Amino acid sequence: MIKLIAIDLDGTLLDGQKQISERNKQALKQAKAQGVKVVICTGRPLRAIEPILEELDLLDEGDYSITFNGGLVQKNDTGEVMERAGLQLADVHRLVDLAKMLDLPLDVLSQEHVIIFNTSENHQTIYPELSPLLLPEPAHTADLSEERLYNKAVVAYHQEYLDQQIQKIPDVFKETYEVIKTRENLLEFMPKGITKAYGISLLAQDLDILPEEVMCIGDEENDLPMIEYAGIGVAMANAIDRVKAIADVVTDSNEADGVAKAVEKYVLQ
């Protein structure tokens, strides 16, 4: 019996217009009414998904989200952080140096703030366009303190150039960090071992829910660990091939109510 559904947003719950279909909405509301925990699992901070949580009626006591790709487990109603993991200031310095070497823009997320570094004169970040609800904060590394929480680093730029530069990232960075593309124009760096599956596993332990009682639904590279972790791992029809290969189930696409169809079949009574 599924007790928790963890759902990715872009390419999964959201269609190409960043909207939630009525069928998806109703299926998730019915699941919540049955006592199933409906958990948004995203790379975004809580502030950026509040309109989605409101639309899905997921702002009550006992509603949770996994944010920053597993870096935070939070209560939706208060924002209280139940579990956390992030980068150290030394990591920020290393990643800023890497971005300069690759001639790429680099931003670091700190809760609802986007710290914007001038790491490339030729290529400016597009992250503020991707996450307009967050607060931009231009800064230099010398301005930062050890005590601040650094959730993750992101490179947001046009796909063709980004993909070209990704090939030049030294292997040592891939050994030290989770280096994953979460959208075609977005590359993210997280501490090694911090994934969506990590965040879901912590929440599941807090709620006394077993992995076999979890359904995870996603489409992209950063969804791989959680789909592998889940009792029922669901890939969207539009998912990348690696996600489909490890999933237990392939549902319809994000344009054809794929989330609702999986929830209706495996969760709703």
Total domain modules: 2
Counting helices, strands and paired strands, the structural category is alpha/beta
Shape: globular
Amount of helix: 25-40%
SSE pattern, N- to C-terminal: EHEHEEEHEEHEEHHEEHEHEHEH
Report the biggest beta sheet as strand number plus sense, adding barrel if it closes: 8 strands, mixed
Distance between the termini: 10 Å
Strand content: 15-25%
CATH architectural category of the largest domain: 3-Layer(aba) Sandwich
Rounded average pLDDT: 96
The level-1 CATH class of the largest domain? Alpha Beta
The CATH superfamily of the largest domain appears as HAD superfamily/HAD-like
The name of the CATH topology of the largest domain is Rossmann fold
Q: How many β-strand runs? A: 14
Tally of helical runs: 10
With strands numbered from the N-terminus, the spatial order across the biggest sheet is 5-4-3-2-1-12-13-14
Q: pLDDT below 50 for ≥5 consecutive residues: which ranges?
A: none
Explain what you see.
This protein is of the alpha/beta class. It folds into two domains: 4-84 and 194-266, HAD superfamily/HAD-like (Rossmann fold); 89-191, Hypothetical Protein, Haloacid Dehalogenase-like Hydrolase, Chain: A, domain 2 (2-Layer Sandwich). The protein has ten helices and 14 strands. It has helices at 22-33, 46-55, 89-102, 127-130, 159-166, 171-176, 196-206, 224-229, 241-246, 258-266, and strands spanning 4-7, 37-41, 64-67, 72-75, 81-84, 106-110, 113-117, 135-138, 152-156, 177-183, 186-191, 214-218, 232-235, 249-250. The strands form two sheets. The chain has an eight-stranded mixed beta sheet, with helices on both faces. α9 links the parallel β13 (232-235) and β14 (249-250). α1 runs parallel beside α10 (258-266). InterPro entries: Cof (IPR000150), HAD-like_sf (IPR036412), HAD-SF_hydro_IIB (IPR006379), HAD_sf (IPR023214).
